[in-house]
């Protein structure tokens, strides 16, 4: 890791309970103070089950692209911020694949999050077929362009998550070298939008991160933390992952 502040984010997806929230707080509150930023993104219904703490921040897993109005089932950026979310995950591959989150929506949601003073964690990643066809960088470039080409000013307010779709929930992680190569590509590519912001932006890795494989990933120069799914539902393992980021 580098001079950029490490960020370890838990994406609970549609899992968890208020009991897990309580357990998670207790476990994280025992961690020694450090420079690592810890973030929990539970289903929004549980945001209020987390007591305020300087050990962790809270985030959401999605946000409406609209400000307010007749959008049944949606939650606006201002509402999430008022509920205590300081981050929001945008464009997760599950949203893109299952809920129609297009590049256009990802851009609109990113703008809304920033306008509400939240930090968007904007997710990008290739499918297995795209990787096998050696199209990873091309696909990423296209999706990065969709958000940042016309709006380079958004980059300084963003966190980027690289989540290869073939590594999500499969137990198959990108090797540290594979992940580093893509993170370095993303950082270099982003320099054309804003050189200073590209050096500073945190690029976190997601896809089967666990307590065993995290140290080698976090030791890579362009990997600034992790976006953790399954392993974040086990408080002790998530705490171990957070500790590992402190040591790297
Ligand atoms: O999608 C992810 C985080 O957003 C990764 O999920 P897993 O850690 O369960 O593979």
List the helices and strands and how they pair.
Blueprint: E1 7-11, H1 18-29, E2 37-41, E3 57-60, H2 77-82, E4 85-90, H3 93-98, H4 103-115, E5 119-124, H5 128-132, H6 136-148, E6 159-162, H7 176-190, H8 195-200, E7 203-206, H9 214-218, E8 225-228, H10 235-247
Parallel strand pairs: 1-2, 1-8, 2-3, 3-4, 4-5, 5-6, 6-7, 7-8
The protein binds 1,3-dihydroxyacetonephosphate.
Binding site for substrate: 11-13, 169, 208, 229-230
Enzyme class: isomerase
Protein name: Triosephosphate isomerase
Protein architecture, described:
The protein has 248 residues and is of the alpha/beta class. The protein has a single domain (7-247), classed as TIM Barrel, CATH 3.20.20. It has helices at 18-29, 77-82, 93-98, 103-115, 128-132, 136-148, 176-190, 195-200, 214-218, 235-247, and strands spanning 7-11, 37-41, 57-60, 85-90, 119-124, 159-162, 203-206, 225-228. Helix 2 (77-82) links the parallel strand 3 (57-60) and strand 4 (85-90). 42% of the residues are buried. The model has no long low-confidence stretch (mean pLDDT 96). Residues 11, 92, 163, 168-169, 206-209, 227-231 line the site of 1,3-dihydroxyacetonephosphate.
